[in-house]
Design brief:
single chain; mainly beta; Immunoglobulin-like; 4-stranded antiparallel β-sheet; 1 helix; 9 strands; elongated
């Protein structure tokens, strides 16, 4: 079973997806992959990276988005560290964001 990763960023204040937000994935071996959410706030384009078990970090660059929509941004970025396991299947890491709070969890 292969391992795959996706993300979805939702603006909880506006109740809509956070489109065009820059993301950065740091892989288990230190590679850095730049990506961006689409118009629906989703991202699963990791430059054809072959995921394996290990620890990863998703950095969501929230400041530009929050300033443009809310004129305030307490968090310039949000890092979510997580671990993928062998034969773990699909991992989904959503981020719920507002100017003064955020939440993440393992989705489906």
């Amino acid at each position: 079973m292969s391992i795959s990763l996706s993300s979805h960023v939702l603006d909880t204040t506006l109740g809509k997806p956070a489109a065009n937000m820059k993301l950065q994935l740091t892989t288990h071996d230190g590679q850095v992959i730049e990506a961006q959410t689409d118009d629906d706030g989703r991202c699963n384009n990791w430059s054809d990276f072959n995921f394996v078990a290990g620890q990863y970090c998703l950095r969501f660059y929230t400041k530009e988005y929050l300033l443009s929509y809310h004129k305030e941004a307490f968090y310039p970025f949000v890092d979510v560290h997580f671990e993928l396991i062998e034969n773990g299947g699909h991992y989904h890491v959503p981020l719920l964001i507002s100017p003064f709070g955020f939440s993440s969890y393992r989705g489906s």
